[in-house]
Structures are given as structure tokens and as C-alpha cells.
Amino acid sequence: MTDKPTAAYTSTEVPSLKAENESAPRRKFEDLPPAAQRALREAEERRKQIDAKQQAMPEEVNGRGGLEPTRYDDWEIKGLTVDF
Predict the structure, then answer these.
(1) Global pTM?
(2) Do residues 40 and 29 lie in contact, with contact meaning Cβ atoms separated by under 8 Å?
(3) Shortest CA distance to 66 belongs to which of 56, 76, 58, 52?
(4) CA spacing 20 to 30 A to 82: which of 13, 28, 36, 57?
């Protein structure tokens, strides 16, 4: 055993983090299994419902802005804790 760890590559041979299949064609929706298609349709429907609910809410006047802190655990703004 040596005192110095040896790298699998030298500093001039940095490995690429690029995925090897980036040039591979993307799969079409129809090529996915039925369960995956159903899950994607359900997720799209949920997103539409959430967006519709968000649009239906009245605009908050002088509010904190941003996402709902009780849902996303964001209890501070610019380092200051907010209390309701």
C-alpha cells in the first residue's frame, strides 16, 4: 500500500460527464408501456387541476409572494423568519 492515493486518470485527462446516449432518439409517448402512459396522463391532469386552482385564487395584496410556506417549509424571507 502506498501513502499517496492514485487517480484513475491524470489531471489532463478529466473524464467527461456527458451521457453517452445524448444522441439517441427520444422515445415517443406511444412507445411507452401502458402503465407509464397512464401515469403521465394522470400527472398532466393533476398539473392542470393545480394550475386552475392557482389561477382561481384571488391575488394577495401586500403578501409575502412566492410559494405557500406551510406546504414547502419556507419559513424565512431573506434570512428573516416569518410568522403568520
Answers:
(1) 0.43
(2) yes
(3) 76
(4) 57
